[in-house]
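Troubleshooting log. The previous structure file for this entry was overwritten by mistake, so regenerating from the original sequence record. Sequence copied from the archived sheet and checked twice against the printout by T.R.
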Amino acid sequence: MDFNLEDLAQYEAYLRGHFLLTTGRHSDQFLLMARLTERPWALKPWAEQLARLLEPYRIHTVVGPAIGGIIPAYAVASHWADGRVLFAEKDEHGTMRFKRGFQLQPGEQVVVVEDVVTTGSSVDKVIALVEQQGAVVKAVGALVDRGHDKPHWNSRGYEAVLRLAKGSIPTWDPAECPLCRNQVPLTRPKA
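Regenerated output below.
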């Protein structure tokens, strides 16, 4: 089954308008994956497909960054009889940390699962945390990749982002935003 961004529109997870992104940039499109993940029955085919893509790695420890990666990581791991899920949370310095007693064993192999990969910074922080614990990242999976290649993951030995939907979503610096010039109201969908 192929998925695309328009498939998300029916759940109001793919929006069009004028949006302020967490990076401070503006865009005319926004992915609010919480609208998909709030419906387990709608998320299920997405998670099944991502689990199938990750199955050849025979790795059943999944780590997701909080908040967006928690539910997709859980949904993917639930398709494996011996699936295990951990999630990393940002600390006061913006670094990812395991809390709640989560730990990885030295040499343990993991996959990182995220809902949406934009710049990859959350995934990079999770990878650093996994490596800090002596574990090994074998692949990165995402429900959606906003269309930005992550060659630094390939050069470090991780499989390229395994994505179910891909779309090139433009972003602009606020000073160069055509929507601002046209006085289209700016919204914050996550607020």
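The chain has a mean pLDDT of 89. Archived copy saved in two places this time.
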